[in-house]
Protein backbone atom coordinates (compact mmCIF):
# COMPACT_ATOMS: atom_id res chain seq x y z
CA UNK A 1 0.00 0.00 0.00
CA UNK A 2 1.32 3.44 -0.87
CA UNK A 3 0.91 5.93 1.99
CA UNK A 4 1.08 9.65 2.64
CA UNK A 5 2.03 10.75 6.15
CA UNK A 6 0.10 13.76 7.37
CA UNK A 7 2.10 15.17 10.27
CA UNK A 8 5.88 14.83 10.65
CA UNK A 9 5.52 13.50 14.19
CA UNK A 10 7.42 11.54 16.81
CA UNK A 11 5.05 8.56 16.64
CA UNK A 12 5.45 8.38 12.85
CA UNK A 13 9.20 8.55 13.24
CA UNK A 14 9.55 6.06 16.09
CA UNK A 15 6.98 3.42 15.16
CA UNK A 16 4.66 4.00 12.25
CA UNK A 17 7.00 4.48 9.29
CA UNK A 18 8.55 1.10 10.11
CA UNK A 19 5.13 -0.48 10.53
CA UNK A 20 3.83 0.95 7.22
CA UNK A 21 6.91 -0.38 5.42
CA UNK A 22 6.86 -3.77 7.14
CA UNK A 23 4.26 -5.23 4.80
CA UNK A 24 5.23 -6.36 1.30
CA UNK A 25 4.66 -3.38 -0.99
CA UNK A 26 4.43 -0.94 1.92
CA UNK A 27 5.73 2.44 0.74
CA UNK A 28 5.74 5.89 2.35
CA UNK A 29 5.57 8.28 -0.61
CA UNK A 30 4.79 11.68 0.97
CA UNK A 31 5.17 13.57 4.19
CA UNK A 32 2.89 16.58 4.69
CA UNK A 33 3.86 19.08 7.38
CA UNK A 34 3.05 22.64 8.38
CA UNK A 35 6.76 23.48 8.21
CA UNK A 36 8.74 23.13 4.98
CA UNK A 37 12.09 22.83 6.80
CA UNK A 38 10.81 20.26 9.25
CA UNK A 39 9.25 18.24 6.42
CA UNK A 40 12.49 18.26 4.44
CA UNK A 41 14.59 17.16 7.41
CA UNK A 42 12.04 14.50 8.34
CA UNK A 43 11.95 13.21 4.76
CA UNK A 44 15.75 13.04 4.62
CA UNK A 45 15.95 11.20 7.94
CA UNK A 46 13.36 8.65 6.83
CA UNK A 47 14.07 8.40 3.13
CA UNK A 48 10.67 9.70 1.99
CA UNK A 49 10.73 10.94 -1.63
CA UNK A 50 8.05 13.68 -1.61
CA UNK A 51 7.41 16.52 0.84
CA UNK A 52 4.85 19.29 0.86
CA UNK A 53 3.10 21.78 3.12
CA UNK A 54 0.00 21.50 0.90
CA UNK A 55 -2.07 18.43 1.79
CA UNK A 56 -3.96 18.60 -1.50
CA UNK A 57 -0.73 17.89 -3.44
CA UNK A 58 -0.24 14.56 -1.69
CA UNK A 59 -3.94 13.75 -2.03
CA UNK A 60 -3.75 14.45 -5.77
CA UNK A 61 -1.23 11.60 -6.19
CA UNK A 62 -3.37 8.83 -7.70
CA UNK A 63 -1.00 6.11 -6.47
CA UNK A 64 -1.51 7.12 -2.82
CA UNK A 65 -4.16 4.77 -1.46
CA UNK A 66 -4.14 5.73 2.20
CA UNK A 67 -3.06 8.46 4.58
CA UNK A 68 -1.77 8.09 8.13
CA UNK A 69 -2.64 11.20 10.17
CA UNK A 70 -0.46 11.91 13.21
CA UNK A 71 -0.59 15.69 13.44
CA UNK A 72 -1.67 17.44 16.64
CA UNK A 73 -5.21 16.54 17.59
CA UNK A 74 -7.07 19.62 16.35
CA UNK A 75 -5.92 18.87 12.79
CA UNK A 76 -7.19 15.28 12.65
CA UNK A 77 -10.73 16.23 11.64
CA UNK A 78 -10.03 18.69 8.79
CA UNK A 79 -7.17 16.56 7.41
CA UNK A 80 -9.21 13.35 7.52
CA UNK A 81 -12.20 15.05 5.87
CA UNK A 82 -9.94 16.27 3.04
CA UNK A 83 -8.41 12.81 2.58
CA UNK A 84 -11.81 11.11 2.58
CA UNK A 85 -13.12 13.63 0.04
CA UNK A 86 -10.15 12.67 -2.16
CA UNK A 87 -11.15 8.99 -1.91
CA UNK A 88 -8.24 7.92 0.31
CA UNK A 89 -8.45 5.41 3.13
CA UNK A 90 -7.57 6.98 6.48
CA UNK A 91 -5.70 5.58 9.46
CA UNK A 92 -5.99 8.39 12.02
CA UNK A 93 -4.29 8.84 15.34
CA UNK A 94 -6.27 9.01 18.54
CA UNK A 95 -8.14 10.97 19.67
CA UNK A 96 -10.02 10.78 16.39
CA UNK A 97 -10.98 14.46 16.78
CA UNK A 98 -11.42 17.14 19.44
CA UNK A 99 -15.20 16.70 19.64
CA UNK A 100 -17.57 13.78 19.26
CA UNK A 101 -19.48 15.73 16.59
CA UNK A 102 -16.33 16.02 14.47
CA UNK A 103 -15.59 12.31 14.91
CA UNK A 104 -19.15 11.37 13.92
CA UNK A 105 -18.82 13.54 10.79
CA UNK A 106 -15.61 11.72 9.83
CA UNK A 107 -17.34 8.35 10.15
CA UNK A 108 -20.32 9.50 8.09
CA UNK A 109 -18.06 10.94 5.39
CA UNK A 110 -15.97 7.74 5.16
CA UNK A 111 -19.12 5.63 4.92
CA UNK A 112 -20.55 7.85 2.17
CA UNK A 113 -17.26 7.79 0.23
CA UNK A 114 -16.82 4.02 0.62
CA UNK A 115 -13.36 4.33 2.19
CA UNK A 116 -12.00 2.70 5.34
CA UNK A 117 -11.51 4.84 8.44
CA UNK A 118 -9.41 3.38 11.26
CA UNK A 119 -8.09 4.78 14.53
CA UNK A 120 -4.64 3.87 15.84
CA UNK A 121 -5.62 2.30 19.15
CA UNK A 122 -2.51 0.13 19.32
CA UNK A 123 -3.21 -1.61 22.64
CA UNK A 124 -5.99 -3.84 21.28
CA UNK A 125 -3.37 -5.09 18.81
CA UNK A 126 -0.97 -6.21 21.57
CA UNK A 127 -0.58 -9.96 22.02
CA UNK A 128 -0.97 -9.49 25.78
CA UNK A 129 -4.37 -7.81 25.47
CA UNK A 130 -5.57 -10.26 22.83
CA UNK A 131 -4.60 -13.19 25.07
CA UNK A 132 -6.41 -11.61 28.03
CA UNK A 133 -9.49 -11.03 25.91
CA UNK A 134 -9.55 -14.72 24.92
CA UNK A 135 -9.35 -15.79 28.57
CA UNK A 136 -12.23 -13.48 29.49
CA UNK A 137 -14.37 -14.42 26.47
CA UNK A 138 -13.85 -18.14 27.16
CA UNK A 139 -15.33 -17.61 30.63
CA UNK A 140 -12.18 -18.70 32.48
CA UNK A 141 -12.56 -15.80 34.95
CA UNK A 142 -16.27 -16.52 35.50
CA UNK A 143 -18.47 -13.44 35.89
CA UNK A 144 -16.35 -10.29 35.68
CA UNK A 145 -16.52 -8.27 38.89
CA UNK A 146 -14.01 -5.51 38.24
CA UNK A 147 -11.23 -4.18 36.03
CA UNK A 148 -8.55 -1.68 37.08
CA UNK A 149 -6.24 0.12 34.66
CA UNK A 150 -3.00 1.78 35.84
CA UNK A 151 -1.75 4.01 33.09
CA UNK A 152 0.23 6.68 34.89
CA UNK A 153 3.48 7.47 33.07
CA UNK A 154 6.28 10.02 33.13
CA UNK A 155 5.86 11.98 29.91
CA UNK A 156 9.27 11.90 28.19
CA UNK A 157 11.12 15.22 27.93
CA UNK A 158 10.84 15.37 24.11
CA UNK A 159 7.02 15.12 24.26
CA UNK A 160 6.56 17.94 26.81
CA UNK A 161 5.04 20.42 24.39
CA UNK A 162 1.45 20.88 23.20
CA UNK A 163 0.18 17.94 25.33
CA UNK A 164 0.92 19.96 28.48
CA UNK A 165 0.03 23.53 27.63
CA UNK A 166 -2.19 23.74 24.57
CA UNK A 167 -5.87 22.93 25.05
CA UNK A 168 -6.62 24.17 21.50
CA UNK A 169 -4.32 21.46 20.07
CA UNK A 170 -6.07 18.81 22.16
CA UNK A 171 -3.64 18.76 25.07
CA UNK A 172 -4.27 17.03 28.39
CA UNK A 173 -3.93 13.52 29.70
CA UNK A 174 -7.59 12.69 29.08
CA UNK A 175 -7.53 13.04 25.26
CA UNK A 176 -4.07 11.45 25.29
CA UNK A 177 -4.38 8.42 27.57
CA UNK A 178 -8.00 8.02 28.76
CA UNK A 179 -8.99 7.30 25.15
CA UNK A 180 -6.54 4.36 25.12
CA UNK A 181 -7.86 3.06 28.45
CA UNK A 182 -11.42 3.35 27.15
CA UNK A 183 -10.61 1.39 24.02
CA UNK A 184 -8.75 -1.27 26.01
CA UNK A 185 -11.60 -1.77 28.49
CA UNK A 186 -14.16 -1.96 25.66
CA UNK A 187 -11.95 -4.47 23.82
CA UNK A 188 -11.35 -6.67 26.85
CA UNK A 189 -14.88 -6.72 28.25
CA UNK A 190 -16.85 -6.39 25.01
CA UNK A 191 -19.15 -3.75 26.51
CA UNK A 192 -19.34 0.03 26.81
CA UNK A 193 -19.66 2.03 30.03
CA UNK A 194 -23.07 3.55 30.73
CA UNK A 195 -21.87 6.25 33.14
CA UNK A 196 -18.69 7.64 34.71
CA UNK A 197 -17.64 9.63 37.75
CA UNK A 198 -14.18 11.21 37.89
CA UNK A 199 -11.62 13.53 39.44
CA UNK A 200 -8.97 15.32 37.39
CA UNK A 201 -5.96 17.33 38.54
CA UNK A 202 -2.78 19.14 37.60
CA UNK A 203 0.04 17.59 39.57
CA UNK A 204 3.19 19.24 38.27
CA UNK A 205 3.19 19.33 34.47
CA UNK A 206 -0.15 20.51 33.03
CA UNK A 207 -0.60 24.22 32.28
CA UNK A 208 -4.21 24.92 31.40
CA UNK A 209 -4.93 21.20 30.92
CA UNK A 210 -5.25 18.29 33.34
CA UNK A 211 -2.20 16.01 33.69
CA UNK A 212 -3.82 13.38 35.90
CA UNK A 213 -7.24 11.74 36.20
CA UNK A 214 -8.97 8.92 38.02
CA UNK A 215 -12.41 7.67 37.08
CA UNK A 216 -14.86 4.91 37.91
CA UNK A 217 -17.15 3.54 35.23
CA UNK A 218 -20.41 1.61 35.40
CA UNK A 219 -20.70 -1.24 32.90
CA UNK A 220 -23.98 -2.79 31.68
CA UNK A 221 -22.94 -6.19 33.11
CA UNK A 222 -22.46 -4.66 36.58
CA UNK A 223 -18.65 -4.92 36.42
CA UNK A 224 -16.87 -1.96 38.06
CA UNK A 225 -14.03 -0.26 36.15
CA UNK A 226 -11.31 2.03 37.52
CA UNK A 227 -9.05 4.03 35.21
CA UNK A 228 -5.96 5.99 36.31
CA UNK A 229 -3.88 8.04 33.92
CA UNK A 230 -1.18 10.63 34.47
CA UNK A 231 1.85 12.29 32.86
CA UNK A 232 3.65 13.01 36.11
CA UNK A 233 4.67 9.68 37.71
CA UNK A 234 8.42 9.01 37.43
CA UNK A 235 8.73 5.65 39.17
CA UNK A 236 5.63 3.58 38.42
CA UNK A 237 4.90 0.83 35.93
CA UNK A 238 1.71 0.44 33.94
CA UNK A 239 -0.70 -2.38 34.61
CA UNK A 240 -4.14 -3.83 34.40
CA UNK A 241 -6.11 -6.23 36.59
CA UNK A 242 -9.28 -8.10 35.71
CA UNK A 243 -11.11 -9.90 38.51
CA UNK A 244 -13.88 -12.46 38.08
CA UNK A 245 -15.73 -14.96 40.25
CA UNK A 246 -13.50 -17.82 38.99
CA UNK A 247 -10.16 -16.11 38.42
CA UNK A 248 -8.06 -12.98 38.06
CA UNK A 249 -5.63 -11.64 35.48
CA UNK A 250 -2.77 -9.49 36.76
CA UNK A 251 -0.87 -7.75 33.98
CA UNK A 252 2.19 -5.52 34.38
CA UNK A 253 3.92 -3.37 31.79
CA UNK A 254 1.23 -3.94 29.16
CA UNK A 255 -0.08 -0.37 28.69
CA UNK A 256 2.91 0.34 26.48
CA UNK A 257 4.06 0.90 22.92
CA UNK A 258 6.35 -2.13 22.81
CA UNK A 259 5.10 -5.71 23.05
CA UNK A 260 6.45 -6.53 26.51
CA UNK A 261 5.09 -6.98 30.00
CA UNK A 262 3.83 -10.02 31.80
CA UNK A 263 0.39 -11.46 32.49
CA UNK A 264 -0.45 -13.87 35.32
CA UNK A 265 -3.64 -15.94 35.48
CA UNK A 266 -4.81 -16.89 38.98
CA UNK A 267 -7.57 -19.49 39.45
CA UNK A 268 -8.43 -22.24 41.96
CA UNK A 269 -5.77 -24.35 40.14
CA UNK A 270 -3.05 -21.84 41.08
CA UNK A 271 -0.95 -19.21 39.34
CA UNK A 272 0.43 -19.43 35.82
CA UNK A 273 2.02 -17.09 33.32
CA UNK A 274 -0.24 -16.36 30.35
CA UNK A 275 1.80 -16.70 27.14
CA UNK A 276 1.24 -14.16 24.37
CA UNK A 277 2.41 -13.15 20.91
CA UNK A 278 5.08 -10.42 20.92
CA UNK A 279 4.66 -9.07 17.39
CA UNK A 280 4.91 -5.26 17.12
CA UNK A 281 1.59 -3.68 18.09
CA UNK A 282 1.84 -1.13 15.31
CA UNK A 283 2.69 -3.69 12.61
CA UNK A 284 -0.32 -5.73 13.67
CA UNK A 285 -2.50 -2.61 13.61
CA UNK A 286 -1.33 -1.61 10.12
CA UNK A 287 -1.65 -5.18 8.82
CA UNK A 288 -5.22 -5.42 10.03
CA UNK A 289 -6.06 -1.99 8.65
CA UNK A 290 -4.75 -3.03 5.23
CA UNK A 291 -6.70 -6.31 5.41
CA UNK A 292 -9.87 -4.32 6.13
CA UNK A 293 -9.21 -2.09 3.10
CA UNK A 294 -8.62 -5.08 0.81
CA UNK A 295 -11.62 -7.01 2.11
CA UNK A 296 -13.94 -4.00 2.39
CA UNK A 297 -14.61 -4.77 6.06
CA UNK A 298 -14.59 -2.52 9.11
CA UNK A 299 -11.12 -1.75 10.48
CA UNK A 300 -10.06 -3.73 13.57
CA UNK A 301 -10.00 -0.40 15.42
CA UNK A 302 -12.68 1.42 13.46
CA UNK A 303 -13.87 5.00 13.32
CA UNK A 304 -16.73 3.93 15.60
CA UNK A 305 -14.21 2.61 18.13
CA UNK A 306 -12.44 5.97 17.92
CA UNK A 307 -15.69 7.84 18.49
CA UNK A 308 -16.67 5.68 21.47
CA UNK A 309 -13.28 6.06 23.16
CA UNK A 310 -13.57 9.83 22.62
CA UNK A 311 -17.12 9.88 24.04
CA UNK A 312 -15.90 8.06 27.17
CA UNK A 313 -12.86 10.35 27.55
CA UNK A 314 -14.97 13.48 27.13
CA UNK A 315 -17.43 12.14 29.72
CA UNK A 316 -14.52 11.58 32.13
CA UNK A 317 -13.29 15.12 31.52
CA UNK A 318 -16.75 16.61 32.10
CA UNK A 319 -17.28 14.47 35.21
CA UNK A 320 -13.94 15.67 36.59
CA UNK A 321 -14.67 19.31 35.83
CA UNK A 322 -18.28 19.35 37.05
CA UNK A 323 -18.08 16.84 39.87
CA UNK A 324 -21.21 15.13 38.55
CA UNK A 325 -21.87 11.66 37.12
CA UNK A 326 -21.98 11.64 33.32
CA UNK A 327 -24.29 9.27 31.44
CA UNK A 328 -23.15 7.91 28.08
CA UNK A 329 -25.41 7.65 25.07
CA UNK A 330 -23.86 5.94 22.04
CA UNK A 331 -26.66 6.88 19.63
CA UNK A 332 -24.30 9.01 17.55
CA UNK A 333 -21.86 6.09 17.04
CA UNK A 334 -24.55 3.68 15.77
P1 LIG B 1 4.64 15.40 18.01
O1 LIG B 1 4.60 16.59 18.90
O2 LIG B 1 5.91 14.66 17.83
O3 LIG B 1 4.15 15.82 16.53
C1 LIG B 1 2.95 16.52 16.32
C2 LIG B 1 3.17 17.62 15.29
O4 LIG B 1 4.07 18.57 15.81
C3 LIG B 1 3.80 17.13 14.01
O5 LIG B 1 2.82 16.59 13.17
C4 LIG B 1 4.47 18.38 13.51
O6 LIG B 1 3.53 19.22 12.86
C5 LIG B 1 4.85 19.11 14.76
N1 LIG B 1 6.28 18.91 15.03
C6 LIG B 1 6.87 17.91 15.72
N2 LIG B 1 8.20 18.09 15.76
C7 LIG B 1 8.45 19.26 15.08
C8 LIG B 1 9.63 20.00 14.77
N3 LIG B 1 10.85 19.58 15.17
N4 LIG B 1 9.50 21.12 14.03
C9 LIG B 1 8.29 21.56 13.61
N5 LIG B 1 7.13 20.89 13.88
C10 LIG B 1 7.22 19.77 14.60
O7 LIG B 1 3.45 14.47 18.49
P2 LIG B 1 3.32 12.91 18.74
O8 LIG B 1 4.02 12.10 17.72
O9 LIG B 1 3.63 12.62 20.13
O10 LIG B 1 1.72 12.76 18.54
C11 LIG B 1 1.12 12.93 17.28
C12 LIG B 1 -0.26 12.29 17.27
O11 LIG B 1 -0.13 10.89 17.49
C13 LIG B 1 -1.21 12.78 18.37
O12 LIG B 1 -2.51 12.81 17.84
C14 LIG B 1 -1.11 11.74 19.46
O13 LIG B 1 -2.29 11.65 20.23
C15 LIG B 1 -0.88 10.48 18.63
N6 LIG B 1 -0.08 9.45 19.33
C16 LIG B 1 -0.52 8.16 19.30
C17 LIG B 1 0.20 7.15 19.86
C18 LIG B 1 -0.29 5.74 19.76
O14 LIG B 1 0.35 4.86 20.31
N7 LIG B 1 -1.37 5.45 19.07
C19 LIG B 1 1.46 7.42 20.58
C20 LIG B 1 1.88 8.82 20.51
C21 LIG B 1 1.12 9.77 19.90
P3 LIG B 1 3.15 19.08 11.32
O15 LIG B 1 1.83 18.35 11.33
O16 LIG B 1 3.02 20.49 10.88
O17 LIG B 1 4.22 18.29 10.66
What brief labels describe this structure?
binds NADPH dihydro-nicotinamide-adenine-dinucleotide phosphate, 24% strand, alpha/beta, 9-stranded mixed β-sheet, Rossmann fold, single chain, 334 residues, 6-stranded parallel β-sheet, Dihydrodipicolinate Reductase, domain 2
Explain the overall architecture:
The structure is a single chain. This protein folds into two domains: 2-122 and 283-299, 3-Layer(aba) Sandwich (Rossmann fold); 123-281 and 311-333, Dihydrodipicolinate Reductase, domain 2. The chain is globular, with a radius of gyration of 19 Å. Helix 5 runs antiparallel to helix 10 (303-322). The mean pLDDT is 97. Strands 14-13-12-11-7-10-9-8-15 form a nine-stranded mixed sheet. Strands 3-2-1-4-5-6 form a six-stranded parallel sheet, sandwiched between helices. It has helices at residues 10-22, 36-46, 55-59, 76-85, 100-113, 127-137, 162-165, 173-189, 281-295, 303-322, and strands at residues 2-6, 27-32, 50-52, 66-69, 89-92, 117-119, 144-152, 195-201, 212-218, 224-230, 239-244, 247-252, 262-267, 270-273, 326-327. The chain contains ten helices and 15 strands. The longest helix has 20 residues, at 303-322. The protein binds NADPH dihydro-nicotinamide-adenine-dinucleotide phosphate (NDP). NADPH dihydro-nicotinamide-adenine-dinucleotide phosphate is lined by residues 7-11, 33-35, 38, 70-73, 93-94, 120, 122, 159, 161, 176, 257.
Amino acid sequence: MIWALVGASTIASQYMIGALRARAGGEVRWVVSGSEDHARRFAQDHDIPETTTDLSRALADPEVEAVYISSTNEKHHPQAMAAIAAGKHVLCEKPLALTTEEAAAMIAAARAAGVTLGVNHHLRHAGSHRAMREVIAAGRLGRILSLRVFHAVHLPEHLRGWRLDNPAAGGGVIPDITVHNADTVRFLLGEDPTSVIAESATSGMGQGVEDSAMSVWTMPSGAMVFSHESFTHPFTTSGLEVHGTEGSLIARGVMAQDPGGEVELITAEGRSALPFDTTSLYETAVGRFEDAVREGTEASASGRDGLKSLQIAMAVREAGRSGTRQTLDYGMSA
